[in-house]
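Aim 2 progress update. The chain analyzed this quarter is reproduced below.
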Amino acid sequence: MKEEGIELIKDGKRLDGRGFEELRPIKIEVGVLKRADGSCYFEIGNNKALAAVYGPREMHPRHLQDAKTAVVNYRYNMAPFSVDERKRPGPDRRSVEISKVSREALDSVVLKEYYPKTAIDVYVELLQSDAGTRTAGINAASVALADAGIPMKDLVSSIAVGKIEGEVVLDMNAPEDNFGEADMPVAIIARTDTITMLQMDGRFTKDEFTRGLELAKKACHEIYELQRAALLDKYSERAGERGEE
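Predicted C-alpha cells:
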C-alpha cells in the first residue's frame, strides 16, 4: 500500500532523478575471492552483492546424491549490516524462499549431467540492500558460476520492474519498493529470451504486465552484455599475463 504523503514521482522523474525506464549504475567484478572456485561482486545502485561458488564436489550425505546429475545448492543471505536497522543473523522465511527461487532461476542453465553425484554450492551475501536484492544475487551468482568453470548453456540475467503512482518503472529502489503498488522480479536467458523466474507482488493490468515484461527483457539484455564484458575482461587479462611469461 502506498503511504499517504509519499510522493514518488516529481516533474516526471523518480526521486533519484531517473526516468521510468532507466537502470541504476551497475558495476561487476569477477574473481574477487581467491579461495572460491568462482566469485563475483555485483553492484546496482546501492545494492552490493557478493557471490561465491564451490565445486563440483562429492555430495555428502550420499543419500542426497543424484546418480545422474549434480545438485545445485543456493544460499541467499542478507548481512546484519545490509539494512538500516540491524538484521538478525541467520536464515529466515524470506531468505529461504529467495534461495529456492534463485536456485530454480539458475538450475536450468547449468549442465548438471556432466557431474553426477556431486554438489555445486552457490553462496550469495548481500552486503548492502536497496531493493532488488534477489535479482542482484542472481546476476552475481550467474557470473560466479561461469568464473568457476561450471559448464552452462548461457548466463542468466535478472531485474525487477514495478508500478509507482500508476506508472510502470524499471529497477525500483527501496522507497519505490516500500510504497509502490507492484513489484515483478524477472530472470531470463537473454540470448533466447527464455524466462527462468517470474514473480509478482501487487497487481498489474494486462497492458502494464506486457509493458513491464518488455522493459525487464530489454534491461536483462543490457545486464547480460555487462556480465559478458566483465568475464571477457578478466580472462583477457589472464591470457595477456600468460603471454608475457
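The CA atoms of residues 111 and 151 lie 6 Å apart. The helical segments are 93-107, 133-147, 174-179, 206-244. These observations will guide the mutagenesis experiments scheduled for the next reporting period.
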